[in-house]
Amino acid sequence: MIPELILNNQQKMPFAGLGIYKIxxxxxxxxxxxxxxxxxxxxxxxxxxxRNEEIFGKAVRSCGLSRGELFITSKVWNTAQRMGDIExxxxxxxxxxxxxxxxxxLIHWPVPGCYGETWKHLExxxxxxxARSIGVSNFGIVHLEHLFEMSGIVPAVNQIECHPLWNQHExxxxxxxxxxxxxxxxxxxxxxxxxxEILRQIGNKYQKTATQIGLRWLVQQNxxxxxxxxxxxxxxxxxxxxxxxxxxxxxxxxxxxxEHLRTANIPEDMINADLQ
Length: 276
Ligand SMILES: NC(=O)c1ccc[n+]([C@@H]2O[C@H](COP(=O)([O-])OP(=O)(O)OC[C@H]3O[C@@H](n4cnc5c(N)ncnc54)[C@H](OP(=O)(O)O)[C@@H]3O)[C@@H](O)[C@H]2O)c1
Known about the structure:
This protein is of the alpha/beta class. Helix content is 39%, strand content 15%.
């Protein structure tokens, strides 16, 4: 069973879930969701810009679990923020997935000049009960400081790229001190550390792979993870990370691997924005 953590509004969220970016084929989606559910996954991470909410909704409706057993995240994209169409974007996501609420709704990127206003709309959606929790993604300290100045609601989650090759220690500490759960996207650095010797050696001790060591290093810092996979063996391994504990020395050793490696693309309309 995948353990859960408690968000700052007392909602529970699994420590690990399935990222579904780039799963755009209906049968791949159906297989991935069904395999994941069989393996104990309960959390799924999508976004309007992934253009797969419809096929995801279809897969999830036939997976055999009730809505209450699932934790579903989606995100509002930059164009909707610029158009001030947050409510419309949220409703379209619900319609595509055929859901009547979303567990966690995130601002996908801190679009300059827009994200403060977007947050106010997310607060309204949260108060309406149609999003059980609200949060942000790709926010740096400067963006979070701005939200704190204008809003009483502290984001439940900041979803950021985070893995052994970009450890994000400063931002993670900042978030965690303020009750914001950090969720790591691209937690496998899209495969960039699969062959790293340090991780393989630590993995040998626990009979785990380098990727399992990387994911374990994240959850052991209370960071939630949403690795993507459509491969059954990978799906299984990516959640088989809760039966061992890395030592403090191993945790510190992995933290020395940081290269500030960004594997996710910055959207074109955000390239000149003030991102950390
Ligand atoms: N908020 C944001 O801006 C943002 C940005 C990017 C991603 N995300 C979210 O984070 C999720 C994960 O990120 P990501 O998809 O970019 O990268 P990732 O999860 O770090 O890596 C996915 C890649 O690793 C492979 N893989 C998975 N498990 C593996 C394993 N155990 N061993 C070796 N290779 C493995 C996958 O291939 P197979 O499918 O063949 O296993 C895929 O090619 C996304 O799906 C999305 O939900 C959010």
